[in-house]
Amino acid sequence: MNTHVAPPSGKLTVEEFLEFIEDRPREERWQLVDGEPFMMMSPATRPHQMIGRNLARLLDNALEKHRKDLVALQEIGIRSEEHPDFLAVADVAVVDAEVENEIYGTSFYLAAEILSDSNTRESISRKRSIYSVTPSCLCVLVLSQRDFAVEVWTRADDWKGRVYRSPDDLIELPEFGFSCKVADLYRGTPVK
């Protein structure tokens, strides 16, 4: 039986990180940001999972009509060639419909993170900044799971963030043919 093991001390290369997680149990969800490994909370809370499911479903519905070459996937590994010490797991990402046989893909068009107790505001902010320098990335979303709060950062708006807090606020991402109310993302959760 595997038990929690601390990662090697100091900053890790991607190769060292991949070697470390190779024998770790699947329920230990590790990420590497700026060479620092950290374990995400596992399993995610049900509201966290529901928000991710709602977002992925709504994105897929829009993509099916407007961008059949793309799909939304949950819990997907992302790698940034611009930051070789970065391997993350996005809660939701839009990627090419024809996926490669890889764990961490470098081509993604939207990355979404749902705030949880296992990620700090600083770590999410750092991930957002790394996502935004990835040439293919057009949009980054950061969603609260405790209240109506969706941050939208887009390349088209020069990465200036906008926060939507009202359940009736309309979020539009024309790059993906996507439009929904904030409340649609929180359907089935205790957020009121």
UniProtKB/TrEMBL annotation:
Quote one Gene Ontology molecular function term: endonuclease activity
State the name under which the record lists this protein. Answer: Uma2 family endonuclease
Organism of provenance? Aquibium pacificus
Keywords attached to this Swiss-Prot or TrEMBL record, sorted alphabetically, are: Endonuclease, Hydrolase, Nuclease
Ranges for the Putative restriction endonuclease domain? 14-182
Q: What is the lineage of its organism?
A: Bacteria, Pseudomonadati, Pseudomonadota, Alphaproteobacteria, Hyphomicrobiales
Instruction: Extract the CDD domains matched here.
Output: DUF820-like
- By its UniProt entry, which Pfam families does this protein fall under? Uma2
Coiled coil, from the record = none
